[in-house]
Amino acid sequence: MKIIIPDDYQRAVSGLEAFKKLAGHDVTLYHDYGVDEPVLVERFQEADALVLIRERTPITAALLAQLPRLKYIAQTGRGTAHIDIAACTRQGVAVVTGMVTPYATAELTWGLVLAAARHIPQEVARLKSGHWQTTLGIGLRGRTLGILGYGSIGSVVAGYGRAFGMRVLVWGRTGSLSRAQADGIETAAGQRDLFRQADILSLHVKLSSETRGLVTAGDLAVMQPSAILVNTSRAGLIVPGALEAALRAGRPGYAAVDVYEAEPALDDPLLRLDNVIGTPHLGYVERDSYELYFSTAFEALLAVAAGQPAAVVNPEALAEK
Same structural domain for residues 304 and 205? Predict the structure, then answer.
């Protein structure tokens, strides 16, 4: 089977233990980013299967129409919002997914909380340039950690907040509220109330057509001038431009972000603000997660190719073959 793996930015995939599962197949990896459609068509033309690293390459109907040989798409993780599933089904391209883990993203979230609260990146940079103790951060104990979305990641982050002696406050859909209450976590009176009370506000909501733009300028405007907003979920949860405007206005006073409207984000306006620290979408990017994501995606791909589909998003596509 001819397998193409695009967007291996760190040249990490071939060094994984999981990569051995593809032994005997013809595998090509690409390591660049920001590739336009004509180049993708050329690269994917002979592929029987694509293995996608999260949402780095959108698979559109227009792209699929130029790939008549393609049979399978294996997605690392479970998100498929970047794949036109209906077009895949019409073309007989089966889409399979792997497994996900909440811990890597939750750990990075907490790293960003600590980095923002204590101005760690700035102090490191200033110390290396010959300056000693130039900022005054805040402690976490006794402060309010607001969590928007109490799912697999949000619940882990809540546990970290409790371990640090924080008051944890949650808002979200009915399922989030029910899970939080079952875990003995306090729930806010509403979304605006959550933003108003939080000293640290962390977003943990899956991006969909219903949640895009969930966080508005009005929500941000009620945050405290000393508050920190942390986003390791998706930039699209916030109305475009609203966070930059809010930070310039001083509410919230600070933000720590791992996700951007367009990625790779090499010139995002948020990164030019002094009251922002940013990381390049590192939430899931660590070795243990990669081993899990790629191992399960490769297994799902090999299974469906062998006529034993177990994780097919669009089983109707198999009938088209």
Answer: no
Which one of the listed residues 263, 286, 291, 316 is annotated catalytic? 263
Catalytic residue among 54, 119, 204, 234: 234
Q: Tell me whether residue 131 is one of the annotated catalytic residues.
A: no
> Active site residue: 55, 143, 281, 299, which one?
281
Task: Return the pLDDT at 85.
Answer: 97
- The whole-angstrom separation of Cα 58 and Cα 81 is 9
- Domain interval for residue 25: 2-100+286-319
Active site residue 234: yes
Active site residue 119: no
Asked whether residue 319 carries a pLDDT value surpassing 90, the answer given is no
| Shared-domain flag, residues 89 and 162 | no
- For the segment 42-71, what is each residue's pLDDT rounded down to a tens digit? 999 999 999 999 999 999 999 999 999 999
User: How is 70-102 classified by DSSP, letter by letter?
Assistant: --EEEESSS--TTB-HHHHHHHT-EEEE----S
Q: Is the pLDDT of residue 321 over 60?
A: no
